[in-house]
Amino acid sequence: MKELVRKLAGQMGLTQAQARECLQHVLDGIVDSLLTERHIRLGTFGSFEVKTRKGRTARNPRTGAKLDIPPRAVATWKPGLEVRERIAQLAQVPPQGAVAPPDTGAPPAGDQP
How far apart are CA 86 and CA 38, in angstroms? Predict the structure, then answer.
């Protein structure tokens, strides 16, 4: 969240504390909508939805005993078309856990004459 707060503060001319507070209000609003409406669409970013995961029977790997896992609510996210298209344009997929470099708007180094 730190990186997003820094980027937001720089783009909006806010202090990081102000940007963090704004971002927290947005996130709280998303959670509130999920709790009351079970669904929220965020423009081209995508939509979040609360779904119910079915109960199931599992097995304890140490003892082999069967466990009943009850149904539960989970939050899901479906990316919007713009997000899917932009991700599909990634020339190189970074390894899992790696942090992607910030988008500077400049063309990649290999594209310069």
Answer: 27
pTM, full prediction: 0.66
- Neighbouring C-beta atoms of residue 5, cutoff 10 Å: 20
Alpha-carbon distances, residue 109 vs 90, 101, 103, 106 (angstroms): 15, 13, 13, 9
Identify the three-state secondary structure at position 19. Answer: helix
Q: What φ, ψ does residue 2 adopt, rounded to 5°?
A: -60, -45
Residue recorded with tokens 């199931």: 56
Helix or strand run (H / E) with residue 90:
none
27-59 pLDDT per residue, tens? 999 999 999 999 999 999 999 999 999 999 999
Distance CA 50, CA 34 (A): 6
**Domains identified in the chain and CATH numbers:** 1-37 (no CATH), 38-92 (4.10.520.10)
| Residue where the block lists tokens 């939805």 | 49
Alpha carbon 6 to chain centroid, angstroms: 17
